[in-house]
Amino acid sequence: MSALTVSSVSKAFGPQHVLNEVGFEVLEGQKVGLVGQNGTGKSTLLNIIYGLEKPDLGEIKIPRETTMGYMTQESCLDPNSTLLESVSAPTGKLGSLAKRVAYLEKKMEQPLSPEALEEISRDYAQALEDFAAFGGYGHPARAEGVLERLGLEKRTYNTKIADLSGGERTKARLARIVMEAEDADLLILDEPTNHLDIETTVWLEDYLTSYKGSALIVSHDRYMLDKLVTKVVEIEATRSTSYSGNYSTFLEKKALELENRSKRYNKQQKEIKRQQEMIEFMHRIYSFSSLHKTQQKKLDRMEKVEKPENHVRELGIDFASAQKSGKDTIDAIGVTKKYGQVPIIGKCDFRIEKGEKVGLIGPNGSGKTTLVKMIMGEEKPTSGLIKVSKGVTIGYYSQEQDGLIKDNTVVQEMRKHRKDAEEEWVRNFLARFFFSGESVHKKVFQLSGGERARLAIAKLLISPHNFLILDEPTNYLDIYAKASMEQALADYQGTVLVISHDRAMLDAVVNRIFEVRDGALKTYTGNYSDYIRAKGKTTLSSGGDTYEVTKKYTDWTTGKKYVKGQVLKISGAELEGHRFAIDNGFLTKRGGDSGKRKKP
After folding, report:
1. Distance between CA atoms of 293 and 283, rounded to whole angstroms?
2. Is 155 helix (H, G, I), strand (E, B) or coil?
3. pLDDT in tens, 292-323
């Protein structure tokens, strides 16, 4: 049965057509990924589905009994409300009932005739009964349970959102997503992992894996889409195309589809050329005959294969070749950092050598940015020493783009670093980052998050560096721009230190991992997947069921060996990866069901 049907939806803003006959279906219990470049209308479509905007044409069909939860990109938490008030505010059906109760209460405060008061009192009693039946009075208690599961201390429950730390606000937003899900049959999520660290993202993945309802997810997190969705809908050039499978399957199918269309187009073009040559020959040799006209009519009536176009715009990222620097780029010796009496980073030692690409990971608030500031010389260690080799030139990308001056135009921001450059050269350079025409004269404060990110990357590229420090460089970039960033960093000959929660990028780019946790820094050789294997688990999530190894075995996909008696925590998201071991008795679930598939 369908939980959501989008039928021939079209939407235009003035002369600009954003959506054109978009259509797809989400089945009950199905999780669907909605992808496309920034600006292709994904958020507009979600607003139409939720009823915040109306389509110009087409319709949205949702069963009457279905309740929806909608989480937008921007946090909906009121900064002046307490944490518990914000998270426990009723949503979906319960939210409608709460509004009904409040409306009737206000109505009863007005002067009414005895008959009208009696009628409203009956409605009010029924509304209270419905509110209680849907768990309205237990809603704050449920919210407390969610906050506790996310590790938020009770002292924060009565703290205003504005006074929470960055990490606490992130978890508050995540708690709100969970409450939306628990009150909804159909969950709509617009970039749910924005600003989440890796651990919290994996926690959310595990939660959504076990979520029984349907979900439509807009996300640029390729790991999440691969784990969760069984269908991908792409919005491209105002139209939609549906693909069964996860995100990786979508990429394969789309590439194959483009290749097949190219082959059909090229084959037909050869045939058209052959026939045109034959027509010209007939006309030249048999000029008195009408044969060539007959043949031309056949050719004109031929159904033409459209030339396939890849509408994905690729960012023109090409990091300059690294200048020469010493062999040892960075040396940290006995480094510690405190703010007052509060320890941030305990004693740590590390070396980053020329040409290495290091991923810096850890929970929000663990001290990653502090470590970067010490490397850049913006802050001094409390003790110890950080030595930067002679000849190192550092290029820095801030996730907040705080190096941009809000009242400057795009061109002015670029000219700050290349005062001698002609405006035509600057405009041509900016075109590689999708700034063209009048958009180069937009002021920074007028730019979207994605536009600011592209401008900050362009500024980084306009000057040569041999050591790049990047703080969440793929935030605000769409999936396709992220791929461009990955390729550029993989090809870069210099040294890279990147703070990121983008696991796909960490897999594609880095060859070492620095993990900052509880004030300590540990180093691991390899990319993110290697780091996970070295940690002895396939996710950072603390959720899932406990399994015990009852017979030693080797996982041939990862090469990892498991010994008898070893205890594993396996989440729902990673269960299939251990399916062979479970089905064959190598792994047994503790405390009940073994986890084996039941026979039909």
Report:
1. 8
2. helix
3. 778 788 888 888 877 766 655 555 566 655 55
